[in-house]
Amino acid sequence: MEGTSRGGVTQHYVSYYYVDVTELTTAPARRPDRRAERSRQAILDATLQLLAEGDVGSLTVEAVAARSGVAKTTIYRRWRDKWELALDAVMIDELPRFDDPVDVGDTRAELLTFVNSVVKMLTATPYGPAMQGLVSQIATDPELARVYREQVVQPRLTQLAPVIARGIARGDLRPGTDVRLVHELLVGPIFYRLLLSGAPLDRGLGPRLVDAILAGFTLRTDNAS
Length: 225
Prior knowledge:
CATH topology of the largest domain: Tetracycline Repressor, domain 2
Number of domains: 2
Radius of gyration: 27 Å
Shape: elongated
Structural class: mainly alpha
Distance between the termini: 85 Å
CATH class of the largest domain: Mainly Alpha
Number of strands: 2
CATH architecture of the largest domain: Orthogonal Bundle
Helix content: 55-70%
Largest sheet: 2 strands, antiparallel
């Protein structure tokens, strides 16, 4: 505030205002952008349609834009390239639809729920064939590998961890069972069949994998070798 002068001495006045801090720190929640979500879903749906008609190698962002009716520039704002878009369509966007291995009081049943979602998805078109094409790209593209680890592997590890913890608490799994190792032993054989051996991804695969895990990670007795 401007000061006033009295007898050659300038006096300054300060005004204080009370501001409720909550007014500054509390903002209304941002509403979901429904238009953006509709565009995103249209892009992912178009990508799946094109993958079902061809393969990930022949997929182009131009074709996705034409099929979805969404501008190519909009697609590139969200996805770096066609590989990241395909990964989102066939895996990342599908994860929320996987069955959740909730506590049912049965470690075997919970592990089956976890692994059967993977088997079911990879036996379906376009998911399995698209992942066959994506794996080599994930292995050689560090950025795509980072996206896969952060948005696929880590969420699945997070989902599996409480299953393993409950299995240990029930005495079905030995203490110290490594969640990451169990995950790799459950999922690794599925991808081996999909990519290399050509053995079928049949309904019996999940139960066989789970039974092998339970046999390998069970509590050991004093007489066990």
